[in-house]
Amino acid sequence: MVIWIPAEAAPLTDAGLTSYHAVKRSVHLLGPGSAAVVIGAGGLGQMAIQVLKALASATTVVAVDTSTDKLKIATRMGADEALISGDDAITRIKHITGGQGAELVLDLVGVGPTLRMAAEVSRVLGHLTIVGLGNAALPVNFHSPAQECSVASPFWGAIPELIDVISLAQTGKITMLVEHFSLDDAAHAYQLLHDGKIRGRAVITPND
C-alpha cells in the first residue's frame, strides 16, 4: 500500500477525481478491440490514461499532445500510442480503429483544434467527452461528430468516486506527478501552468 502525504495526495481530489468520473461513465464501451483517445497529456490526461488502464485494461489507449515531453510521460503512464497532435494523428487513429473511430474520445483541453480532432475521430454510438475548459465550441453538423455519438461535458465527481480514486492510488495503480511550490512562488507556478511547463500538477503549500 502506498502512503500519501497531503501535498502529494491533493491532486487526487482534482485531476484524479475529474478524470475518473469522466472515464467511468464510458467503461462499458471499452471491451477488447476498443480504443480510447486522450487529447491532452497534462495532469488530467496523465491521470485519465492510468484510470483507463485500471478500469478498462483491454482497450487501446492513444495519447495526443503537442509536447513530445508530455507524450513520453503519457507512454510511461501506460498509453499504447503517443501521437503529436495534427492531421497525421487523426490518420493514425483512424488506422488503429479500422476507420471506425474511437469508442471514447476524451478532450482534456477544449480549444478549437482539439475539439475538431475529437469530432473527427469519434465513432458511431461512441462517447465524446469534453473535460477541458478551453474557450471553444464543438463543431456539430450531420457528419461530425459521428452519427449518434454521445457528447458530454462532465465536471468533477462524487465522494464515492473519490474513495475509488484513493483506493487506486493506495494500490499503486495510479500516481500523479507533483511539482511543489511555496506560497511565495504561487504567481510563478501559475505562469508555468499558463505556459504549459508543469509536467503534471502543481501543489502550493504555505511557507515554512
UniProtKB/TrEMBL annotation:
Stored Pfam families: ADH_zinc_N (PF00107)
Listed cofactors: Zn(2+)
Oxidoreductase in keyword set: yes
Alcohol dehydrogenase-like C-terminal domain ranges (all copies): 43-168
Matches recorded under InterPro entries: ADH-like_C, NAD(P)-bd_dom_sf
Signal peptide (from-to): none
This protein's UniProt keywords: Metal-binding, Oxidoreductase, Zinc
EC number assigned by the record: 1.1.1.1
Superkingdom, taxonomy of origin: Bacteria
Gene Ontology MF terms: alcohol dehydrogenase (NAD+) activity; metal ion binding
Record carries keyword Zinc: yes
PANTHER family: ALCOHOL DEHYDROGENASE 1-RELATED (PTHR42940), VACUOLAR PROTEIN SORTING-ASSOCIATED PROTEIN 11 (PTHR42940:SF8)
Protein's name according to its UniProt entry: alcohol dehydrogenase
Organism: Mycolicibacterium psychrotolerans
Lineage of producing organism: Bacteria, Bacillati, Actinomycetota, Actinomycetes, Mycobacteriales
